[in-house]
Amino acid sequence: MILPAISLDVAAKDTSLLTSLAVVGDVLLTPGPQGQTQDPSALLEAASCWVQLPSDSTVDTALDYLHAGAAKVVVPAAADYVTSLLQQVSSDRIILSVELDGASPATAITAEAFGYLFTVSTAAEDQNYVKTIRELTASFTSSRIYWSTPSVPPTIAAIAAWDKHDINLVVSSTHLSTSGSSSNTLDLGEAFAASLTSDRPDGLFATIVVDEQRVALGLCYSSVKSISEAIRTRTGVYQSRARGLWYKGASSGATQKLVKITYDCDKDTLQFVVTQEGPGFCHLNTRTCFGADSGITALEALLRSRKAAAPQGSYTRRLFEDPVLLHSKIMEEADELVEATSKADIAWETADLIYFALTKCVANGVSLADIEKQLDKRAKAVKRRAGNAKAKWDLSLKQNGATKQEPAATAPGQNATAVAKTETKVERRKEIVMKTYSYADTSDSEKEALLLRPIIKTEEILARVKPIVDEVRSRGDAALLDLTAKFDGVKLQSSVIKAPFPAGSMTLSKKVQDAIDQAYDNIYKFHDAQLDKSVLRVETMPGVVCTRFFRAIEKVGLYVPGGTAVLPSSTLMLGVPALVAGCKEIVIATPPRIDGTVPPEVVYVANKVGASTILIAGGAQAVAAMAYGTDTVPKVDKICGPGNQYVTAAKMVAQSDSSAMVSIDMPAGPSELLVIADATCNPAYVASDLLSQAEHGPDSQVVLLAVDLKPELLAAIEDEVKTQGEALPRSDIVRESIPKSYIMKMDTMQQAMDFSNNYAPEHLILHLDDAEKWVEKVQNAGSVFVGPWSPESCGDYASGTNHTLPTYGYARMYSGVNTLTFVKHITSQTLTKEGLDRLGDTVTTLAEVEGLEAHRNAVAIRLKDIRKGRE
Ligand SMILES: NC(=O)c1ccc[n+]([C@@H]2O[C@H](COP(=O)([O-])OP(=O)(O)OC[C@H]3O[C@@H](n4cnc5c(N)ncnc54)[C@H](O)[C@@H]3O)[C@@H](O)[C@H]2O)c1
Ligand SMILES: N[C@H](CO)Cc1c[nH]c[nH+]1
């Protein structure tokens, strides 16, 4: 192949010539006639170049040019810094040059480089030269040879002849033309095509047309002539087999700017890199001939079309028109990406950030190609930057209150170790501090906002959950195994354990077993008392008897969370009422531990409540399996239990799908607690209660309503929250949840009670002098803990009440799980002849009012018989 060369002086004067030459590949920038008279850095922005260094250059010059973006530097093989340079940068970036004088080298080659450039006085093919070159490079892996004859005009025949020896000819720009051959210049297209071979009878070259991201747009054919025309016009010109030269888009307007022409390893297929204008490459007006585009390129195309003409109400249009909103969204998404930890969340947040960042680019005329140019340039940099964050963002500075010195940029191998040492590891640790508000100074709208829970992106979560549910529905057990591997990192052979459970899977210490047994007894006692097993019988009028009786829901699925904590207590809270109610089949779902097993405490309780199946799966996939059933998981009639946002969303999805025929208990999400404390409170107790729920998960929210507390008492509570919180094993979670929580200073108890009823907390602690008295004022709460000796933890485990409670404010209309959750009531009525005689006219009259004749007739037909002979 040819390597076009241009002297620095000429290129500086005529950058368009430089960029035209670069259409067929990298360009060699050679020193001007007086040596290196020009700094090549600016030219490196315009095209991908190799820079040939003059004999007096140093290792720093080489590093500077490489760092500035030179694809390669051509260094005299005899230069004393070759070894040093090769220690600092990859040999892929270096070409060693040797002058050959009459086939004998002036210098020996001693180092491996990307390739070797031989400068000679003849352009003609010469077997002696070929032999010498092969001998000089025989000991190196790379056999890329470049042959330069600066003053001799090459011929197409010479290019092809050298090519047969696998030797590339360097051709000076003074011997090249982009507008056809002349007596002393070669046409660039023809010179480029001289090395190509066609495997087709018509001599054409198959040409894959791609966009700047290398997405294939379609397939064309090229001839030497069409290649020359493409280079001359810098547009997409091909050889149509039917119509001759084809100037793409000339009639349709879907023109192309030619960016680059490359060739494949066999030199028989071309790749045209183009910027496609208009609707697209395909005659069907799509961007590609291979169907719909996807990924980032599709996003860029969509954003461009929105910029040109966005429909009313388009969110992207809003972003284009409101730079402040766009700014805020970029910051928000960057922050969410920083917070994300799971693989799925990181991908999700990155996609969000890319969407908003690309919107900014498109709004400002920046293309994906511009971004990639920057990335490619950075990939060429050879000097390391210190990489510290700006002071504004440097969390380590904020944490230490210190000022840090920005180390200077360094060349690799020089003082990189020193740089590494000065860079401190930045750890993001939030303070365990609740925000404080004063009820009197808070506006109504702020109060409204404080009544809401940390925002859950319902649509986003649903968008993640629906495909999971669909997958389990369609692929059953196989999907369960795949999703468990994906989300829980565990490869299981089977997702279920069937009763009787192996004794070894539920072995516990006596202490733990006794504690579970005690908790079981209390929960059983309280839940057994909730079910009135008698039949309700009321004679509403003589001869008309109504009854109501209960039946247990036959098959129930109990979700026991297990993502961040083992929860045998939740197994009790769901299993015991289901057992008391008399459910015939109990399926318990819980995520696997990292070794694929189920915690023995959970198996122990499952066994105690008579579960038939333990489903070893968590999240939306477990809910879906119980809702629709699989070959191994029984389909259930009702799904109960708390869980994270995926679990809650999947329960909602299943409930709203009538084909699933399944109901749910309630939306029970991240735990929450509201404490009302007065001046008699113990600050350590208050803090411990707040932390007990804050440790559940980063989304948990705790609220303290401080009624007329002295500043010292409030400060003591805040101190306790901080010190107790920092000492907790789950302090990382608390550092996330406590900053989302708050203290509200209240003047009166009534104010506090009203606020609490509006908030409708899952758990309410009345840490008050006369706590009992205030219970009757509680309108909305999941469960209430009365007085200083009733910590919320007792309700979580063993007092007897249920801990599966409504969150997010649903305590306004939902009860927590109880025995009635697992039963339904059926009513019956029995009418005697006399009874129907008494009630019949009421029914026929109302049926007439509703115009329902068949209803009326069902009574009238009987009344006629009853009253026969009477009227
Ligand atoms: N209200 C109550 O009565 C009550 C009781 C106990 C626990 N809780 C709450 O239950 C929640 C338990 O949450 P958890 O996460 O510890 O356990 P979990 O069992 O609810 O969820 C874990 C599962 O979530 C799935 N998952 C995780 N990341 C995912 C992703 N990116 N996409 C799809 N699925 C994903 C995985 O399958 C994993 O098995 C906490 O919020 C806690 O406060 C509430
Ligand atoms: N507080 C949680 C639900 O509100 C339940 C729980 C389980 N283990 C400890 N606590």
Automatic annotation (TrEMBL):
Entry keywords, A to Z: Amino-acid biosynthesis, ATP-binding, Histidine biosynthesis, Hydrolase, Metal-binding, Multifunctional enzyme, NAD, Nucleotide-binding, Oxidoreductase, Zinc
Cofactor(s) the protein requires to work: Zn(2+)
EC number: 3.5.4.19, 3.6.1.31, 1.1.1.23
Domain of life: Eukaryota
Alphabetical list of PROSITE patterns matching this protein: HISOL_DEHYDROGENASE
Pathway: Amino-acid biosynthesis; L-histidine biosynthesis; L-histidine from 5-phospho-alpha-D-ribose 1-diphosphate: step 2/9; Amino-acid biosynthesis; L-histidine biosynthesis; L-histidine from 5-phospho-alpha-D-ribose 1-diphosphate: step 3/9; Amino-acid biosynthesis; L-histidine biosynthesis; L-histidine from 5-phospho-alpha-D-ribose 1-diphosphate: step 9/9
An annotated Gene Ontology molecular function: ATP binding
Cross-referenced CDD domains: Histidinol_dh (cd06572), NTP-PPase_His4 (cd11546)
Listed Pfam families: Histidinol_dh (PF00815), PRA-CH (PF01502), PRA-PH (PF01503)
Catalytic activity: 1-(5-phospho-beta-D-ribosyl)-5'-AMP + H2O = 1-(5-phospho-beta-D-ribosyl)-5-[(5-phospho-beta-D-ribosylamino)methylideneamino]imidazole-4-carboxamide; L-histidinol + 2 NAD(+) + H2O = L-histidine + 2 NADH + 3 H(+); 1-(5-phospho-beta-D-ribosyl)-ATP + H2O = 1-(5-phospho-beta-D-ribosyl)-5'-AMP + diphosphate + H(+)
Gene3D superfamilies registered for this protein in UniProt: 1.20.5.1300, MazG-like (1.10.287.1080), Nitrogenase molybdenum iron protein domain (3.40.50.1980), Phosphoribosyl-AMP cyclohydrolase (3.10.20.810)
GO biological process annotation, one example: L-histidine biosynthetic process
All residue ranges annotated as the Phosphoribosyl-AMP cyclohydrolase domain in the record: 219-290
GO CC, any one term: cytosol
Hydrolase in keyword set: yes
UniProt-listed PANTHER family: HISTIDINE BIOSYNTHESIS TRIFUNCTIONAL PROTEIN, HISTIDINOL DEHYDROGENASE HDH
Family that this chain belongs to: In the C-terminal section; belongs to the histidinol dehydrogenase family.
Entry protein name: Histidine biosynthesis trifunctional protein
